[in-house]
Recover the amino acids of this structure.
């Protein structure tokens, strides 16, 4: 998962711009990855997933890119909106056994 | 997600007390999980259950126990609470389809151990 620390990495973007949130995962055997969004006071919510046999997957305004060579995952949000402000987590698993979460990135969208 | 309900939402307790956090789901999922979230850290798995008679330890099970009373109910107990168990606790269920597996989380229980 992402590097562990006491302070969340923070990304500030202007409304309407594109956002890119990055995640370095640890297990080269992981075969399934998910991005979650956590708004203040709520539990994480599923955004998009990708299997290890893919390198890109698109959803509505979101794209996940997977680079297995360097064990890197990214989430791209197009035309970022104020409602996208949240903490974003990546999670990895192998054989759908247990999910391991990164420490999260806080996205601030400036109006 | 209202389909996964955690009680209580907030709890303040004292060191040495036994407490139970409860989770119920109406999604009909077999798999249930308890996670802990600390500031600046990701979610860490405490215990998980893939079926009513199945209980497995996660990354940080010491000091915790669980009970899967029914498919819909999975409770987490702290036998003797200590201050470093102060955290935000999440229950989750999962739906495994042919395409992948999604976790559905409750709204969390904020636990403070004084």
């Amino acid at each position: 998962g992402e590097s562990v620390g006491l302070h969340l990495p923070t990304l500030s973007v202007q409304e309407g711009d594109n956002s890119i949130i990055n995640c370095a995962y640890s297990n080269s055997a992981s075969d399934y990855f998910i991005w979650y969004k956590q708004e203040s006071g709520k539990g994480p919510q599923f955004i998009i997933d990708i299997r290890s046999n893919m390198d890109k997957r698109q959803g509505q305004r979101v794209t996940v890119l997977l680079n297995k060579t360097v064990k890197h995952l990214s989430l791209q949000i197009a035309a970022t909106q104020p409602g996208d402000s949240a903490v974003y987590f990546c999670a990895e698993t192998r054989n759908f056994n247990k999910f391991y979460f990164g420490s999260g990135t806080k996205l601030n969208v400036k109006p | 997600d209202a389909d996964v309900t955690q009680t209580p939402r907030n709890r303040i307790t004292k060191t040495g007390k036994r407490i139970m956090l409860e989770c119920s789901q109406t999604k009909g999922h077999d798999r249930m999980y308890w996670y802990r979230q600390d500031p600046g850290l990701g979610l860490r798995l405490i215990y998980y259950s893939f079926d009513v008679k199945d209980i497995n330890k996660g990354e940080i099970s010491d000091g915790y126990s669980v009970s899967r009373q029914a498919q819909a109910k999975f409770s987490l107990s702290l036998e003797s609470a200590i201050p470093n168990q102060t955290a935000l606790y999440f229950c989750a269920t999962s739906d495994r389809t042919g395409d992948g597996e999604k976790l559905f989380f409750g709204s969390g229980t904020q636990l403070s151990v004084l």
Remarks:
- Chain B has a mean pLDDT of 93.
- DSSP finds no helices and eleven strands in chain B.
